[in-house]
Structure prediction request, 260 residues.
Amino acid sequence: MLPTLIEFGGFKLATYGLLVAAGYMTGILWLNARRDRMGLSEARFWGLVYALFFGAIAGGKILYWILEFDALRSGQLRLIRDIRFGFVFYGGLAGTLLMGFYYTRKHKLDFLNLSDYFLTPLPLGHAIGRLGCFAAGCCAGRPTNLPWGVVFDHPDSLVHYALRDTPLHPTQLYEAGANFLIAGVMFRLLEYVRKKRYAKGSVAALYVGLYSVSRFVIEFFRGDDRGGFFLTLSPSQWIAAAALGASVYFWRRLNGSGVR
Prediction:
């Protein structure tokens, strides 16, 4: 792991921040190259990008506050002091979709078509960001005796100090790998949608379903403090189950039996 990529004098460049930014930039550059296909002017494209970014930040933070309500109430977590950290991916995804729906309705754009394009590079950017998690030691897994267990012993690691010398599941790499695979499926499916073999909105629906399945499984190996929430499942697993059901519903509604 490498929490700090560059340190010069008092300046530190965090590997996590750099890789998250690289993930965002990868997606934006890919989308900008396809702006004409989406039927967006330069002004509309950047307006949508900023709107989605705001929705992702707001949604991710709001769901984090909901899940950490007890910590907020006790004062252990502060709204302003701790604003810079603590986001939940599902909240960010929900905020992105809601803001995208609002923006496209306001400007009379095709929500389903744009959802397909904007969600296609998302798992690729997410995978790059999870590599940043691995570098920082956040979102680490439970202790394991498997040969690929990783010891996060760096003094700046975000792994709890009691587990610094313990091999842990590299759940960040599990999720990065799953997202790289999902990205490959999304890029392929988008071409099928463009050829009208599947309905518009299919990429978005399948992405939510595939990510939900992968996240549900990976949660069993995560070692953070969000463990058993209800019936031994974590909040993310319950959200994943609901999201999977929604994705199946919308896929069937869009495509019926499948190929159009």
Observations:
- The beta strands are 4-8, 11-14.
- The CA atoms of residues 146 and 169 lie 8 Å apart.
- The first helix runs from residue 15 to 32.
